[in-house]
Specification:
This protein is α+β, with helices and mostly antiparallel strands. It contains nine helices and four strands.
């Protein structure tokens, strides 16, 4: 059976969880406590970089969200979450990539800086970055039901997990009416409802986002230092 090591609020694990649900695959969810358990030897043996998600399929292990999504699509192609038409595929991939590479970093910065009385330059840059990305996605979606037309794809699986959260970060989706309708449509799907975070979970996630990067950086430095010492001793 497929096993997914995940954390329920993780923006990287949730798309994989969604893909498994949308493909109607049988899988086991294994939660990982990101307050420190990801640095313990048991999890490091699965992912030496100490982050979720990790997918285990029999004797094969896959790390990194996008690699896992590609693996699932290739090995379990029905129902398909990627179009074959060149233009539709390009649109799906563009939406998927800008959501992860542009919008998600902006979301994290907005969360980290949201309680500041005087907004920093980092906050303003993140806000403008989010607005720019949402504008691009609005134009890319156009009047289509989904980014690839009538087919739900990886674009929705990735972008759909956090676009709808933008109003809670001070960026209303009413400024992007096509994206708003698209997002509302996704939230009605059973898979989306199954992974939905409660208000308490969302607020807890935001609190963790503000402190976890510093913890991760310190633990990663300790881990790398330990590995370096082990290699030197082995010489």
């Amino acid at each position: 059976m497929l096993k997914l090591y995940y954390a329920r609020p993780s923006a990287y694990a949730r798309p994989v969880w969604l893909a498994l649900l949308e493909k109607q695959l049988t899988f086991e969810l294994i939660p990982v406590d990101l307050s420190g358990k990801q640095f313990e030897p048991e999890f490091i043996s699965l992912n030496p970089f100490s982050h979720v998600p990790v997918l285990v399929d029999g004797d094969f292990r896959v790390i990194e969200s996008l690699a896992i999504l590609d693996y699932l699509e290739a090995k379990y192609p029905t129902p398909s979450l990627l179009p074959t038409d060149a233009i539709a595929l390009a649109k799906a991939r563009m939406a998927q990539m800008v959501a992860l590479n542009e919008l998600l970093p902006a979301v994290i910065k907005l969360i980290v800086n949201e309680e500041q009385t005087e907004k920093s330059a980092d906050f303003e840059f993140a806000r403008l970055r989010a607005i720019n990305t949402l504008g691009f996605l609005e134009d890319l979606l156009g009047d289509s039901r989904y980014f690839a037309g009538d087919q739900l794809t990886m674009a929705e699986i990735v972008a759909g997990t956090f676009v709808y959260r933008m109003p809670s970060l001070g960026i209303p989706l009413t400024d992007y009416p096509k994206l708003q309708v698209w997002s509302e449509r996704l939230l009605l799907r059973p898979a989306w409802q199954q992974i939905e975070l409660s208000s308490e979970e969302w607020n807890s996630f935001k609190r963790h986002i503000k402190v976890i990067p510093k913890i991760w950086e310190r633990r990663r430095r300790q881990r790398i230092s330990s590995l370096s010492e082990q290699r030197l001793q082995a010489i």
